[in-house]
Design goal:
There is one protein chain. The chain is an all-alpha fold. 76% of the residues lie in helices and 0% in strands. The protein is globular. The C terminus is likely disordered. The longest helix is centred in the N-terminal third of the chain and has 34 residues.
């Protein structure tokens, strides 16, 4: 009984420790005046409204959402055929592609960002908004690649063999057998890439600089002129979006299966 109590007390303490920064930031974001006071002095949601009403913050929000949506889609488009190729093991050197797919996310972000900066500056495309989309897609391709690899690993190969025996070609097998089975992993890979792309700063800043302000870039640029609770409200907004996305995945799918912990049948 005592061990159970101490274990619960430990987990509660860890949870409070991890939640404390968010609680402080959330408190600052509802201050009635432009103040960093905590506990907040008064209560106002005006700083949240400013994200959508102020033209500069709204433009940064639209830029971040557009970048995250397209970059996540491109990351999945790259990861799907790569995961399919790795699962089939067509060539003995297939693992080389897996290493290449994991490398951008394993390396320190600043190294990847500098590599992207050098490449786009050399090719003459530095500062173009679409370069940030490609850079984020390459940087976050690891996430859908890992989830899709888990999805392919969960497929019973006898189903594929049965479909091939019935005369189905590779395209038909992929469309009618494989894709329905890996759809949860496809969605989760997209969600992971979307959320992280929405919050990413270093790679975006290195590839587009000041030509396009995403929300993270906007925050760092605004810090040069002082701090406002709007920045805290943007931080809470990021957390809320992440919680909403992963909450929907947990509600409409098997989160343990999506994370590769176990299959939904066990």
């Amino acid at each position: 009984m005592r061990q159970t109590f101490l274990r619960r007390l430990y987990f509660v303490a860890v949870a409070l420790f991890l939640a404390a920064p968010l609680v402080v930031v959330a408190g600052v974001s509802v201050n009635e005046k432009q103040d960093l006071a905590f506990p907040p002095k008064g209560f106002s949601l005006a700083w949240y409204a400013q994200i959508f009403m102020d033209p500069e913050w709204r433009k940064a929000l639209i830029a971040s959402l557009s970048l995250a949506v397209t970059a996540a889609a491109l990351a999945v488009a790259i990861a799907l055929p790569l995961a399919w190729f790795l699962w089939r093991r067509i060539a003995p050197w297939a693992n080389v592609f897996q290493i290449l797919g994991l490398a951008p996310f394993i390396l320190p972000p600043v190294i990847t960002a500098l590599g992207m900066l050098t490449f786009w500056a050399t090719t003459g495309f530095y500062g173009q908004p679409w370069t940030a989309v490609i850079s984020h897609a390459i940087f976050f391709v690891t996430l859908p690649l890992v989830t899709l690899s888990l999805g392919f690993a969960s497929i019973d190969r006898s189903l594929v063999e049965a479909a091939a025996t019935m005369g189905a070609d590779d395209r038909t097998v992929l469309k009618t057998v494989v894709l329905p089975l890996i759809r949860p992993y496809l969605v989760s890979g997209y969600a992971f890439a979307f959320v992280l792309s929405l919050n990413e700063y270093i790679v975006a800043y290195m590839t587009i600089g000041f030509t396009l302000e995403t929300l993270p870039i906007k925050i760092f640029n605004a810090l040069r002129y002082g701090y406002t609770p709007t920045m805290a409200s943007v931080s809470v907004f990021f957390v809320a979006v992440a919680a909403l996305v992963f909450g929907l995945i947990a509600k409409f799918g098997d989160i343990r299966r999506l994370l590769g912990a176990m299959s939904s049948e066990t």
